[in-house]
Amino acid sequence: MSGREREVLSSIARGLSNTELAAHLHLTQATVKSHVGSLLAKLGARDRAQLVIIACESGLVTPRVAEEGSSSSG
């Protein structure tokens, strides 16, 4: 995986959309889509959700734990 693909994967795991990714990394949306497709193929993931899981399991990103009392369901 290239350094740029690692940046894209990290950004996906943080919840950025393709549009946000393009702006954040100064890329075109077509280039972002190309990187996402490449990551899906290389990592054997079927969707962005699986990419997030892979990023967390590999230690590329650390899942945030919600602060106590910050849930909107309670």
Automatic annotation (TrEMBL):
GO terms for molecular function: DNA binding. Keywords: DNA-binding, Transcription, Transcription regulation. PROSITE patterns: HTH_LUXR_2. One of its GO terms (biological process) is regulation of DNA-templated transcription. Pfam families: GerE. InterPro entries: Sig_transdc_resp-reg_C-effctor, Tscrpt_reg_LuxR_C, WH-like_DNA-bd_sf. Residues 1-59 form the HTH luxR-type domain. This is Response regulator transcription factor.
